[in-house]
Amino acid sequence: MSLISLELILFKIALIFCAVSTAGYLLSLIVKRIKLAKISTWILAVAFGFLTVNLLFAVINSSGIINPGSREFLSLCAWSVSGVYLALQFKTKTRILGVFISPFILLFMIAAAGQESGKYLLPQNLQSWLIAVHLFLTIVGEALFIIASCAGIMFVMQNRMLKHKKLSKMSRLLPSLNDLDRINHICLLCGFPILSVGIIAGAVFAELNWKAVWLTDPKIMWTFAGWIVYGFLLHQRLAIGWKGYRMAVISGAAFILLLLSYGSVRFCFSTLHNFI
Amino acid sequence: MIVLTGLNHKTASLSVREKVFSGCQEEKDLLKSLRSLNGVGEVLYLSTCNRVEIIANVEEPEGAVKNLSDFMAQNGGLTEREAASCIYKYYNEEAVRHIFRVASSLDSLVMGETQILGQVKDAYRQALAQNATGVVLNRLMHCSFRAAKRVRSETAIAVNPVSVSFAAVELAKKIFGTLTGKKILLIGAGEMAELTGMHLITNGAEEIIVANRSLSQASLLAEKFHGEAVSLDALEEKLIEADIVISSTGAPAYIITADLIRKIHHQRRNRLLFLIDIAVPRDIDPAASSLENVYLYNIDNIQDIVDENMNVRKKEAIKAEMIVEEEITRYVSWQKEQESVPTIVSLRNKAEEIVKAEMDKAAGWMQKLDKEEQAKVDSLVNSVVNKLLHTPVAALKEESSEFSSKDIVATVRRLFRLDE
User: Fold this and answer.
1) Is the ipTM of this complex over 0.85?
2) Are B186 and B194 spatial neighbours (Cβ–Cβ below 8 Å)?
């Protein structure tokens, strides 16, 4: 069996495990059993393992890191989100967070499955190690922000229930406010510098190759706006001491806003980042 | 037959329970004296703060139960009228149901409480150590443990807290996750506040500060928790440090106003604050509830949660009763099978006797055969007997597990003249 077909099989297995895990998470929310979410977390960990091996094979197979295929790129997105989520599970017991995270992972995986293998993501003129660094770090950084925002949205839900002085099944299922706030904190704290370095890498590359035009690219502007919002949040948290509800609301809102803007830019404008 | 007699919180007042409890406790070699009563075979004695019960396997139920309940009444010094009104007696399946329900905590004062199973297990362990139980009670107790386990794992009867202080702990955990390292501020030295503080400490909270109008009373309570005592003047300063505040003073006006919390919120660096107001009239301004990162619960809010949890338990109890019924059916069918066991044994004995007698008679001419042939005759005879007995034995077992086996047992005994 060739390495390429092995790579494909690994990817398919990871996709199946990922789908099962997402279904398990959603079911745990419906039947309100935390145990299902725990099992789903393990299934996701298995999917993550297969995906890791798959990506390793991809690196060996391809001409190098600097020229990723579209499928590899999207699986890398899925890999980063699930990696960050699973790493967080060591620190906090917030299995039910997966209900919000796993659909994103599955979406990335499905999008990756839809790509032809062997199709290269980047046009010839963009293949450089700076771009590889830029891609990897921005993806991981965004993954951390996705999780920070999901935790924020869950915080708002839990906060609402506790303020209404009801301990419903839903409230029992969701993690504690403190844990959610901590996740938000950790993700912002790690995500911001990672995204910063990623953006700088992209900027350096652009400056070297394109000179001035790139700054007006709509997608870059949106990313920059998002980066400023998260930077602002991190500043408020560290310097001003914002905590809990306010952080949760703003990071949730920022996330939804960025998602919408990404969608509108993706479909309405032509940008230098047409490949994603 | 299994019988059960005793009294519990539903039938007897605390004073009566106390008398019987200590009366039986004083008795030396209690299980031995119970077994020496007329007609009592195996016996088990269960006593907790809410019940005193004796479970026994007896030959002749009426007499034995009377002996057991008289024993209990005498030891507790109960009058005949008292005894008649509070001691209950269960026979057979009813007794099985009762012990299963007790072990599953369906008969407890607080339904779903978790201690009772441990107490039943202890009682059984004691009986085992003194060889007071036998096949029947051993089986019964194991089945009751299984019923209790299933009730615990298959229903949510013991999941949600049903007391104010435990509900407060659960809320605190929903806010803070873990209570490790959290600071508690008790305002007022009331009993309820003390109890809640105690539960929070056992769940990991580290420091307790007691604030009271009279400093001496504050120190008294603070000593219990190895905490700090302050007067009410230091309230603001301590509010800045605290994560959980339990207030229960008799003050006529609000002690903590919304403005006060707003003022210190910045100094607290916006940390989450859990306020529990169990005072009537209230100590904490309800307007504080709308502040960011502040969670205020008064006694009614917590009581509502407790009531809701109690309702959940009641619903779950219906499921639990069904599980208990299933386990009873299982036990009873085993018990019925046991009814036919003595008959099967005597049937086999009789057959063996006949074989032995006939073989002895044949010993004369069998001597002429060589060893191998003797063995062949032996096995031939045995296999004929076994094949003949197989069908009636199987039928006995089968019938008795489904219906009462009395009729078929009697028929078999008559057919084979087992009682002669």
Assistant:
1) no
2) yes
